[in-house]
Amino acid sequence: MKRLRVLALVPTGSVPPESLEDMSSKQIEDLKMEYDVLTALRQLHHETQCLGVRDDLRPIREAIEEWKPHVVFNMLEEFHGHVSFDQNVVAYLELLRVPYTGCNPRGLVLSRDKALTKKILSYHRIRVPGFAVFPRGRRIRRPKRLAFPLLVKSLTEEASTGISQASLVGNDEQLTQRVEFVHEHTLSDAIAEEYIEGRELYLGVLGNHRLETFPLWEMIWRKLPEGMPRIATARVKFNVDYQKKYGIVTRAAKGLPEGVADRVARLGKRIYRVLGLSGYARLDLRLREDGQLFVLEANPNPDLSHDEDFAEAADAGGLPYNPLVRRILGLGLRYHATWYR
Description:
Blueprint: E1 5-11, H1 25-29, H2 32-43, E2 47-53, H3 58-67, E3 71-74, H4 86-95, H5 105-112, H6 114-123, E4 131-134, E5 150-154, E6 168-169, H7 172-186, E7 190-194, E8 199-206, E9 212-213, E10 217-221, H8 234-238, H9 240-246, E11 248-252, H10 260-274, E12 280-287, E13 293-300, H11 309-316, H12 321-334
Parallel strand pairs: 1-2, 1-3
Antiparallel strand pairs: 4-7, 5-6, 5-7, 8-9, 8-10, 8-12, 10-11, 12-13
């Protein structure tokens, strides 16, 4: 790949310094992905410029007009504080006819709305948990077909925002309380889905048309007290002390029943295409004891930190970190958006 001018879009406040020395673990956590990606781009000998974005599109246009990047490396997860607005930034890049990395606007729209995702997958006979949506400002009434226990979360927020052990509810009173909590604390509609007891699996998928899958990854709870549900709460994902207390790790899935890994890989490619995804994504699934697979979520543009699930699975599949970043860059350059046809 020739030397490129790469404009990196990151959240305001996450523009990384040249070095992480003398920074606290909290400071590093807030910009680690951005630092890892930019470091990889520089090691790949690309010319980089990093732009912090919050709620104004003008700096993006100005940087593109003045610097004329070959490609934009998109690391935004929200715009103006809303996760559902990130697709608008990508759509804006398409209007400017600039190649970009990661998922296209249509794929982001279909996958960000958890209920819409499940409806589409159900139409294609892909198994998902039963669910119901509870809009803000509406009466909270559980459909009779929806059986407890239920996991209640935001319809659109990511990174387990608002999810805790209290999110798993066993009766209508608890359901009402938790839905109201989600409405108040995330300012979004709530979704309640049937809790699937089983192994939590993650599948990394890379590509636009020709797709590649990585080895299955799994979340393990080594010291969880008996009867405590295995839920990927915000504390499970981001609280290091909590992870140590309960022995929570993610690693390559071991001891899977024969044929499951191949079945998940085929299913993952099908989901990726059904939802119109591009670039790269992580799919979250549950494997029940009886061998049934349930799709929980599709996550376009997952965390690209070198020590997070997606990059670790890629490395286990023979694609180390810097080559992974190079591949993502190449996919962005080769993606044929509507304007390109």
